[in-house]
Amino acid sequence: MQQLSHYIDGEYIDGTSGRFADVFNPATGELQLKVQLATRDEVDEAVARAAEAQKAWAKVNPQRRARVFMKFGQLINDNMDRLAESISREHGKTLPDARGDIQRGLEVVEVCMGAPSLLKGEYTDNAGPDIDIYAMRQPLGVVAGITPFNFPAMIPLWKMAPAIVAGNAMVLKPSERTPTCAFLLAELLYEAGLPKGVLQVINGDKDAVDALLDNNTIQAVGFVGSTPIAQYIYGRAATNGKRAQCFGGAKNHMVIMPDADLDKAADALVGSSFGAAGERCMAISVAVPVGQETADRLVEKLTPKIEALKVGPYTAGDDVDYGPVITAAAKDRIEGLINSGVEQGATLVTDGRGLNLQGYEDGFYVGPTLFDNVTPDMDIYQQEIFGPVLSQVRTDTYEDALNLVMENDYGNGTAIFTADGDTARDYASRVNVGMVGVNFPIPVPLSYYSFGGWKKSAFGDLNQYGPDAFKFYTKTKTVTSRWFSGIKDGHELNFKAMD
Ligand code: NAD
């Protein structure tokens, strides 16, 4: 059985814990890799080495640091297929979707190529009599990145690129369920010229995370994952005096107004609810049509599209719309939630339970599932299912739909489909959700904006990537400076008449 431990100072090393996590190929159900989970001592050692390396890295001028990321971007492009395969093999998403995962991370690397501009300070000449004030942005030191299973390239890149180009060193702990891509990316970053020790990648579970949270050298923690863990990490990091930004789970609603183009809305729903088997934090999992007629027509349009979806292994190529879910436990949990929806009275329109693919009987597949007449008290509404399940909640008016979204605990993304600019504008202005799409289902902001939810979808006050990331990964130092008249008074250099 293949094993993967840690990547320290640009080299693979063997772990010592003797504790392992299993990495499956979700398409076949086969165990394909064992990752060794780091001990507290191993984490502390990785951090100490990173701290040593960071001192010199912080002194490298920003333009030279950015050049490493220019080369890194080129290497990611050159290795796109190899990286995508590593993602699909461990996550199960289709190869085009895996390339999208890399692409959306690469775009953040591209922004980091312009880091010198983003790291510039501020200067006020003559802020007082002979007084100047300037503010500079300095790196924090060693920071930690802790990432989830569902975007094995994108989210590690969202963490490592801004942190490192800003002059920090990073200890990255990728998901123990989809770790390989982060290690391949680290190899490429070293190939691009990163000095030894500036990025360390460790495998681990709660023990390793707690070691990072308790390590006094770690200055900041960037986390992405589920809400309970995000909240836990935010609390423990803050108690230990660290900066933290912790992005959590989601329950994203799409409001469909009676005047919306329902064909386009239905296509958008199918893509955003079932793509990547629904394992996206920006997946739409709740459709909220306004008016009974809109709801009836929407179900009519959705049903044949959903029934036509092809579920299968990534190796089947373009024939497959989405792949398996991440583990057998995830499949059981999702099917359990579908059972609860039926028991609690929702109308099961398409049933994804018990999907058995010939030749892939041990894979973790769940068919596309559509529920109608879902109500907010049901478990399928209250919980983040993180699977290929779309729930339709009917509402009578626009205000009812807006209130439903506002009252939900999560606030990551939302969308409205309508032909009316005034309604769209009102929705975007009033809704208490961090990222809003207007006739656009997955409004993940481009890399020169910033990504972040509201409510229980994010803990901390700055978003990830874009301008916010440069604020998060640097601290401001402000200097007030006065120079007394001195040496220049002792000399007369003016050209004067001789008399
Ligand atoms: P998860 O919370 O189980 O794990 C995330 C990370 O935390 C992993 O590295 C894991 O090893 C670590 N971890 C797990 N349990 C821990 C514990 N008890 N103590 C300390 N660390 C622990 O999340 P996941 O299942 O890998 O990812 C799916 C979740 O991530 C979903 O809820 C999804 O919505 C969310 N997500 C959010 C965003 C966002 O930007 N808001 C993006 C992607 C995914």
TrEMBL record:
Q: What's a Pfam family this protein contains? A: Aldedh
Among the GO biological process terms of this entry, one is: thymine catabolic process
Q: Where does the Aldehyde dehydrogenase domain lie?
A: 13-479
Its keywords, alphabetically, are: NAD, Oxidoreductase
Q: Which SUPFAM superfamilies match?
A: ALDH-like (SSF53720)
Report the GO molecular function annotations.
methylmalonate-semialdehyde dehydrogenase (acylating, NAD) activity
Question: Which superkingdom heads the taxonomic lineage of this protein's source?
Answer: Bacteria
EC number(s) stated in the UniProt entry for this protein: 1.2.1.27
Where, by residue number, does the polypeptide cross the bilayer?
A: none
The protein's name in its UniProt record: methylmalonate-semialdehyde dehydrogenase (CoA acylating)
